Amino acid sequence: MLIYLEPVLQKRALTTFHYALNELGFLMLGKSESVGNNSDMFTTYNSREKIFRRSGARGRFMQVTTQGSEQNFKDIDTDIRLENGQQDVFKVGDNLLLSKYVPASVLVNERFDIIQFRGKTNIWLDLPSGKASFNLLKMAREGLAFEIRNLFHLAKRTNAAARKENILFNLDNQQQYVHIEAAPLSGAADTHYLVLFEKGSLPGAESTVDGSGKNKKRQIDLRDTRIAQQDRELLQVRADMRTVTEEQEAANEELQSANQELLSGSENCKA
Asked: Is the dihedral angle over the CA atoms 14, 112, 136, 183 positive or is it negative?
């Protein structure tokens, strides 16, 4: 459950584990969990099984439980009050930024499974019919799955955020545009990606002024835009096919080499 906690709470939990752990005791974490930036408190005993041991002397205990009475987490998060009874203006400001100005996003793993939704994503994602699935590629609107997959490959290859703007997709039989960015997240045991969605606009749309002083938008040929996008997709498919072909040829060469070694070994045994 550590992956669902904010860094501050992760620090508190790991500090508590460090304090409570016996001298020769072990800390065992889940497959998706790690000690993160707290490697100074623990040393790796078995990296594959995620087993750690306490490093250094027992630290100071940090109180992380409530005193006196239990509180509802929802009330703590949405109703933070100052001593004078007024709501915390900093919390109000943060909530306003998150709800209106921070792009909608999803947190996914390497298999494109959505771990967490952030903000309203229904414009770009929709629940597929049939068996329930939170797979990002299956939930993506028509025209987005191919682009999302390409962004993932680019982000994985470069280990940096990959972004593409003004991607054309269909929403309720209407053509819309979106900017998508896929950013790899480091520090966790398994690689995760944060995929951000921002509303796009018609490429090349500009405001002009006629003789009467009224603004009007220059008409855009959507057919040409769609053709250009299909051309890019075709080029990407060809590049992917070349990559797959090269990998297949390399695998065949390794297989032939292994067969030759087996035949040679078999002949030596017979001799």
From this structure: positive
